[in-house]
Amino acid sequence: MSKRLQVVMDDAEYADLESAARRDGETVSHWVRRALREARRQQPKASSARKLAVLRSVLVHDFPTGDIDQLLAETERGYQA
């Protein structure tokens, strides 16, 4: 089911939208829908608090680390074995 969204803007803002849509070869409606989809994709999926909680839970562990070149070489040798 589709929903209609009404957005009120002044004439100058709407003229800018029309120009942008025309440059992209789109209708204003299509241009706005695409812009909203892109803006929605850029929004974080999880809250900052959730992300910090995950990082804090991982940072309590003491995993072995090493030189990246050495780790990659060892991985490659494992593939070849």
Compact summary:
This is Antitoxin. The protein has helices at 11-23, 28-42, 48-59, 68-80.
Task: Give structural notes.
This protein is mostly helical. It has one domain (1-60). It has helices spanning 11-23, 28-42, 48-59, 68-80. Helix 1 crosses helix 2. The longest helix has 15 residues, at 28-42. The chain is elongated, with a radius of gyration of 24 Å. The N and C termini lie far apart (56 Å). This is Antitoxin. It comes from Nakamurella aerolata.
Characteristic terms for this protein:
mainly alpha, Antitoxin, 0% strand
Task: Give the tally of structural domains.
Answer: 1
Major sheet: size, sense and barrel closure? none
Rounded radius of gyration (Å): 24 Å
Order of helices and strands: HHHH
Mean pLDDT: 92
* Share of residues in helices: 55-70%
| DSSP strand count | 0
Query: How much strand?
Result: under 5%
Helix/strand/pairing category:
mainly alpha
Detail the poorly predicted runs: none
Shape: elongated
Amino- and carboxy-terminal Cα gap: 56 Å
Count of runs of 4 or more consecutive helical residues: 4
